[in-house]
Amino acid sequence: MGEDELARMPGFGPTTARWLVGIGIDSYADIDALGSLEVYRRLQASRPGVGLNAPWALECLLLGCHWRDLPDSRKAELRRELEDGGARSPGSRG
């Protein structure tokens, strides 16, 4: 897929696409296989300061919804899982 196609996925732009390619993620299948939180952790490790909008956008991509539609309850679940150290988000497929 690559950077250009990643940048066209919902919720992503050229900067995020470049960051994803930089950590070895170059397709939807890569994101789906790893899960939103693992991809976020890898982004955070390579780019300290990446905020929580990243896992929200990744989760929405996997769930097929707009980032504005991610319920606060799901965000809270993701935050808890990040704090607990779980690798895959429960709502992601794969």
The tally of beta strands, per DSSP, is: 0
Separation of the first and last Cα atoms: 19 Å
Structural class, by secondary structure, is mainly alpha
The count of helical stretches stands at 6
Helix fraction by DSSP (H/I, runs of at least 4): 55-70%
Low-confidence stretches: 88-94
Q: From the alpha carbons, calculate the radius of gyration and give it in angstroms.
A: 12 Å
Largest sheet: none
Give a verbal description of the structure.
There is one protein chain. The protein has 94 residues and is mostly helical. The chain contains six helices and no strands. Helix 4 packs antiparallel against helix 5. The chain is globular and about 30 Å long.
Topology:
Elements: H1 3-7, H2 14-22, H3 28-34, H4 36-46, H5 53-63, H6 72-84
Helix pairs in contact: 4-5
Report a brief summary of the structure.
The chain has 94 residues and is an all-alpha fold. It has helices spanning 3-7, 14-22, 28-34, 36-46, 53-63, 72-84.
